[in-house]
Amino acid sequence: MTAEKSASFVAFRRDLHRFPEISGQEVQTQQRIKAFVAPFTPDQTTEIATTGLLLQYGTANSGPVTLIRADIDALPIQEVNTFGHKSQVEGVSHKCGHDGHAAILARLASLLAEKPLQKGRVYLLFQPAEETGQGAEAVLNDPEFATVRPDRVFALHNLPSFAPGTVVCKPGPFTAAVQSLIVKFKGKVSHSAEPEKGLNPAYLMADFTLKSRSLINPNPQSDDFVSITPVYTTLGEKSYGISAGYGEVHLTLRTRTSQKMERLTSQLLNILAILSVGTGIEIETGTTEVFFANQNHPDAFEEVKNAAHKLGFPFSEKQEPFRWGEDFGLFTQRYPGAMFGIGNGENSPALHNDDYDFNDDLIEPAARLFLALLDRHYQ
Fold it and tell me: Which domain of life does this protein belong to (predicted)?
């Protein structure tokens, strides 16, 4: 690829970085992507999940059907970087590299335009709302997706702390199952001089939070890995004559598999039920930002590994899943496929740090790796 052409994809990535949009609000991001990829002549371009975009290459009903996904949403984080492409939106920035993921997929679109498919179909999905865990579900539930029916699905994520361009993958769980549990404690307010005339949930909240610690297994290499992180709590008001009558505890939970997440959630609800007996305090629970574990199919893992070796890219087989959640897990729960990582640089700031930025040198090799995965099935 010429330096001029390479620069156009870097410029595109940096343009997305300047104008980030948070989950579910990627209206201008969608239109920027749509305009940029139009010259790469997809057979069909479809707006999906409201703010996402689906490109189709190939129209044959026979042959393989592959879906490759990139996420496009930003985070509600104020950027501290001062480079020329810094975010122009107050309090919002691309601190997970989704701008880079979108640029990789755009480059793959240009490669597919140069080499039309002779059989089957390839779908390139620019997916919104990954950070909230809602985007994958919105795509899968969109009627526009009903006819896609992929045979295999692939996605990547850039990885700070790994050498640039190193491909990282593993069979089985690649990212953790993650969800947040919200517990509401509904008691009764009273005068703080007469707390016995009300129902103050403070001690029940404290007992529950402390009891939850007994379920933690911090060893990331264990099949029974469990992380429970208190992320938010509220109780009463700053009115010192009133005994509180309402409170909330929010916990973020992480396990290696979605099945273990179900068990952990049941254990926590059982603890709540036991502790609340006889207190008179009403308990209401709910979950939010649910991420299913990415389950890498063994055949798809081998395909990623072989493609990396074929291209001469460094390859690292990870021994335990990453602890962060990724809603591509909903795809790998339904279809054979794999998510893999690509190193963003050993000295790269961590994901979700306010000084993070995507490494533009990854755009070309990552797109070539996706193309190598396709070549195996479409030659």
Answer: Bacteria
